[in-house]
Amino acid sequence: MSQYWIVAAILLPILGGALTPVLPFRSRRGMLIYLEVLTIATSAIVLTALSRGTTETLHLVYFVRGLSISFRIDGLAMLFGGLVSILWPFAMLYSFEYMEHEGHEKIFFMFYSMTYGVTLGVAFASDMLSMYLFYELLTLVTVPLILHTLVREAILAVRQYLYMSLGGAAFALIAIVFLMVYGDTMEFTLGGVLNPAVIGGETNRLLFVYLLAFFGFGVKAAIFPMSAWLPQAGVAPTPVTALLHAVAVVKAGVFAILRLTYYSFGAEFLKGTWVQPIVMGFAMFTIVYGCSRAVKEQHIKRRLAYSTVSNLSYIILGASMMTPAGMVGAMAHMVCHAFMKIGSFLCAGAIMHQTDKKYIYELNGFGRKMPVVFGCFTVSALGLMGVPGLAGFISKWNLAKAAVESENVMAYFGIGCLLISALLTAIYMMSIVIRAFFPGRDFDGRSTEGVRDPGWKMCFPLLCFAAAVIAIGLCSDPLICFLQDIAAGIY
Amino acid sequence: MNFNIWLILAVFLPIACGVLILFFPGLKKRNLLLGVSFLSLAVSMLCALAVIAEGKAELHLLQFGGSLEVYFHVDPLGRVFAAVITVVWLMAGIFSCEYMKHEKEEKRYFGFYVLVYGVLMALCFSGNLVTYYMFYEMMTLTTLPLIMHNKSREAIMAGLKYLFYSLCGAYLVLFGIYFLNRYAGTLDFTAGGSGLEAAGGHSALMLVVVFLMILGFGVKAGMFPMHAWLPTAHPVAPAPASAVLSGLVVKMGVLGIVRVIFYVVGPEVIRGTWVQTAWLTLTLITVFMGSMLAYREKVMKKRLAYSTVSQISYILFGLALLNPEAMTGSLLHVVFHACVKSCLFLSAGAVIYKTGKTRVDELTGIGKEMPVTIWCYTFASLALVGIPPASGFISKWYLAGGSLESGIPVFSWLGPVVLLVSALLTAGYLLPITIRGFLPGADYDYEGLQKKEPSGVMVIPLLILAGLSVLLGTFPNPLIHYLNEIIGTLF
Amino acid sequence: MAFVQNVPFFSIMLSMFSGIVSSILPGKAAKRLNTAVILVIGAASAWLLSWLMRTGGSFTFMMGHFPAPWGNEIRAGALEAGMALFFCVIMLLSMLGGRKKLFDEVEVTKHNIYYILTDLLLSSLLALVYTNDLFTAYVFVEINTIAACGLIMIRQNGRTIEAAVRYMIMSLLGSGLLLMGICMLYDLTGHLLMSNIKESVAAIMAAGTYQIPLTITIGLVTVGLAIKSALFPFHAWLPDAYGYSTVSSAAMLSSLVSKGYIFLLIKIFYCVVGFDIIVGSKIPNVLFLFGLSGMIFGSISAIWEKDIRRMIAFSSVAQIGYIYMGFGLGTTEGMVASIFHILAHAATKSLLFVSAIGLTDVSAGSRNFFDLTGSAYRNKVAGVGFSVGAMSMVGIPLFSGFVSKLLFAEAAVMHPTHKMMPTLIVLAVSTILNAIYFLKTVVRIYVPEKREVEAEKGYFTMKAGQQRLYTITIILFILINLVLGMMSEPIIGIIETGLIHFI
Q: Cβ A403–B178 below 8 Å, yes or no?
């Protein structure tokens, strides 16, 4: 029964969002309340449905070739769906204050809401084709959001985003067709669906196709060399970059890779083949590449975007180990990074909103004046570095544990990449923190006059995320046990 | 069991008080600030002394994920370190009361000063490697503001360099911890180590891992090639902070190595391997190089910093020999060096405070102006050089003896030779200040002589520390006896 | 013989007759007659289709009382009926969508000529679909060419005349080659009726004689029809023809005319020569290669275009490439995919042309890409239509384009030959290329233009209420697209059944 709730949860924000420009609101406040209630209601539906936990598939619509749009709540779906539902209401609340100074709010909120529904669609899709459908829709529905400011930069950024995303998905389609032909079913099954009897001598071809799909979905997951769109998309308003490009869109990419690897082709099929070093190698390279670019970048949001590029490859590294432990590490980082990165982006947005300053070197001494914002930013920074007691340490621990257990020499270098990245993260994050709190002797207070913390609608989400980072860091057992169950196929 | 309360208080009270001092806005008046700081320090130290006296507390505090646990366990080694830290911290703290009058932003200084004490206590009382790592990172982060205190460009760059190197080292250690988690018997500290049985065929890998951990902790201990931060960071901090950084914080690196080699892995794993050889080489290089660079350095505090680099490697050399007698020498030197180096830094600080002179060549006749200070300096120098009956002699005796006895080719005789040469150099870089200080030569302006002795608050700690430097050497037996007990359990 | 079996003959005759009658009717009456005829034929074809699906199989219809092999024959199966129905629907919608432009662009006195040409076009298309005789096919191919030329030229400006001439030249070249092929086939086999020719060809192949002449014949026929349907590299006439003619013409040309020739080619492959023989010769490989090149080249040329209609026209070149690639795979699944793509492309391309005209109208008639900024806000209906068309082209699931791509890919994967990987890779690459030029345009039309610029350039806004017919047309096109995209199984079923009974 709870699958119907899922369909409701997916449709509610889409339809509710689509109605936003049309409904006659008495005041701006009325519209905001409507939106927040819509989002919270959807999250409530999702979380209730998850807690009931049935695992039957709901086939909504059959269309071509025996393919259908269907939904199912399995472990990975619970994780992604739950994560997204928890984060969206906060981000929505934050965007209210933020968007006050931007224009065209109604269109913005329409698509922002619709993206929520579509992301849930990606999460709860029970087979490759349904996921592909919602994946493509996700690309389309986020286009107006990136395009929002309508400056030339935004147009160029959205074009790049479109071409790369759709192009990537086109390559992923090849894999879908192969799964149709060589697999027992298109439904996601832990361990893969490929039928060994049918494969015959086609193994190498299938591996090549996997690689194509990996890079195809890897566009959204920003693996090198498909990562170029992500820093450009920083031109969008911060609620968009924060939620979409730190949480929803990019996590949909890694989610798709996880589904592709563990639930379609199957880890056993892929482990030890020539594909694994390639995949691992690109992940490792991206980890270091992202961080190196971040160090050199002076624009706040682009720096954080490069950081996202790097962190996504942590998840891909975990996935590429093709073991349950690797999957656990990948999922752990999915969760931990989401909280940390959304916190950092929202802090960056708060700075930009309050002061119009976009570059790192303009932030001297802001720490004293905006203690809440920079306090939360420091928590995120320390978390991303992997300081014990915060969320990042837990996910890195699980990733490293998986790497050590895999006894794969390349994985050991993978750990090295993780730590080099931690070091670079320390540089590019702590330099902001230090600059804010220790601005140097020749600093005068004039440039920070009038700088204050933003209102409660922006501060409250920041504090919640910082608290979550600390909470996960100190008490991660429930989460890790849950993830281990998912990897073992219990859900 | 009720001693656990003392343990918690000893660790967390200073941390809490430090945080309070930092954030509570009402502590504007200097006397109030000092009062609160000293009260918190005093109470914490009493608790620590209680724990040290009892010697058998154990506490599983928090399990934050899988095998990750915050675990405190008071053992004899921890007691020794804690005792040294407490005494020296108190002395330097008293010194700071007067000294910090001519620096600004005392609130931040004292806040972190109290906080770091708690962190160091946590390190001494850590019961497993994870807890150690956690507080190690915390130590790096909380000592950073102490280094960057005067917010000059130099200080901030030095702080960043410190951060970078320390994190490098910490991540090398973390790399090792990931592997030890899998392959060591347990991450809890057990005397003699729990061995690497689970490693099986991975012995080459484990050697690499252990070596990396030695390098990692060696960063904090200033071992070549990762020593470059030390001469930059220690001098730029306020003098009492330099004293504790050089005297105590670096010892945490040493403690880390001891814990890894002797309490987790077990010395037999590296005995006779390339790891031991490399380690010995590096330490001897550092000993020699540190002394040479100190000899040529003209800025007083930097000279003392290079001296620290050199002296700590004495300790590491003794540890690397994996020999009970050498280890006695090392642990003795831990205690002695702490007292000596802090005394030296504090006297340098007194000189700067009273006369503003930082370079060695400006210090002619200083002994006439500040006799008590320079006499304390002299006794400490004698101890460091190793003149009987001052303490340094005892530790060097044991080191040399252990080296000769160890039977390791080349190093058994090379060690004492290098130690001797270094002792000569030590004399060369420490004693001229005394000599020229008391016997300034013909062209000194005797008429314009003014007594610039600092006040009692600064002089008394100097006297106590200098006294300890000598007396511990004259009556070393209780200490030696206690250390032998500890060492007996490790081999 | 059931009454419904008269439908094919009836359809052809009706449309031809109405064409003749329209010559004496004034414009408005001709228009109404035209619309009525299309509706009637469409309904009849639907009836025929449902009857055929129920009874299964196909039938031949003797024209007059002369039995084969002397008399003429018509053949109808599920596939033919389906195609006929589809052609009617597309033609109707294209006419409706471009009606307003027709008034603007064509002189009043020439309106009835337009409807004559349209009727002739319909009749020749139907004849090509239903005929079982090669000579008849040739005759109607020529009628088709002339009608198409007229449709291009009806809007008189220099460009269209040039385009029409170019079209005429190339088309006649194609027809010439076709005629040569037919003559040689007649020489070799002694028959003109398709089923008879097939038996003879089978006999020839079995005997092993006349191999080379047969191959050359097939080659001539193929190249001839390929030129007429604008396969790369014979596509030079297409951009101008589609780009400059009036909207209804462009829509019909791109959706129907070229597809008619392709359908004839399919017929020749299956009913004249025999599919296995075709696969045995190397002709599919050549078609495959040209198809792939067309896909890439068409898209690349489209990217360089700044004129929206020519861009859509080049996109047609690419799409025809897809169809020939499907032929080139040489399997039944490939054929099914190609035929489905004929339907999908027809629906989508017409939608795009009709929407594009809406967008250019509110941009002072300019077709330049930059002038179209913000036009989707000025004409919301056209904007939506164009976006839907673009998404279908790019292959977003739920739209028809996705199903075609899926079918092509599946066809390739089912029989792993060395053709598989190039097919898949080029499919993916062409999706990216499509995305580039279509989505660039979609983004552009949705970026609002500043008010001052709009006033200065004389742009105006068109609401849905002002163009009711247009709006209905667009909505119907979108619905067709969605039906093809979401309820494709039955349609594919019809195609598959039809192919089986084709032979």
A: yes
C-alpha–C-alpha distance, residues A312 and A245, integer Å: 11
Give the structural domain span for A316. 272-491
Pick from B273, B80, B259, B272: which is nearest to B186 by CA? B259
Phi, psi for residue B11 in degrees, rounded to 5: -85, -50
**Nearest residue in A to C422, CA atom:** A174
Please indicate, yes or no, if residue C191 is contained in any of the structural domains.
Answer: no
Contact across the interface for A173 and C406, Cβ inside 8 Å: yes
What count of residues does chain C have? 503
Beta-bridge partners for A187: A127
Nearest to A440 among B138, B151, B167 (CB): B151
Q: Is A430 on the interface with B (CB under 8 A)?
A: yes
Residue C456 lies in a domain: yes
With beta carbons less than 8 A apart as the criterion, state whether C76 and C61 touch.
Answer: yes
Instruction: Tell me the backbone φ, ψ of residue B70, rounded to 5 degrees.
Output: -90, 110
ipTM exceeding the 0.95 mark: no
- Tens digits of pLDDT across chain A (491 residues): 667 888 888 999 999 988 888 888 888 888 888 889 989 999 998 888 888 777 778 887 777 777 788 898 888 999 999 999 999 999 888 888 888 877 778 888 999 999 999 999 999 998 898 999 999 999 999 998 988 888 888 989 999 999 999 989 999 999 888 888 888 888 888 888 888 877 777 788 889 999 999 999 999 999 989 899 999 888 888 888 888 877 889 999 999 999 999 999 988 888 888 999 999 999 999 999 999 999 999 999 999 999 999 999 999 999 999 999 999 999 999 999 999 999 999 999 888 888 888 898 888 888 888 889 999 999 999 999 999 989 999 999 999 999 998 888 888 999 999 999 999 999 999 999 988 888 776 666 666 777 788 888 888 999 999 999 999 998 888 899 999 988 988 77
Identify whether A33 is part of a domain. no
Does residue A420 fall inside a structural domain?
Answer: yes
Q: Is residue C446 part of a domain?
A: yes
Q: Which of A323, A387, A415, A429 should one mutate to test binding to chain B, selecting the residue with the greatest count of B CBs within 10 A?
A: A387
Residue A324 lies inside a defined structural domain of this protein: yes
Question: What range does the domain containing C370 cover?
Answer: 282-503
Range of the domain at B286: 271-491
Q: For chain B, how many structural domains are there in total? A: 1
Into how many domains does chain C fold?
A: 1
B338 within a domain of the structure (yes/no)? yes
With a CB cutoff of 8 Å and minimum separation 6, the contacts of A148 are: A102, A104, A108, A154, A236, A237, A240
Residue A283 lies in a domain: yes
Decide if C381 is inside a domain.
yes
Q: Looking at the partner chain, which of A403, A419, A441 has a beta carbon nearest the beta carbon of B174?
A: A419
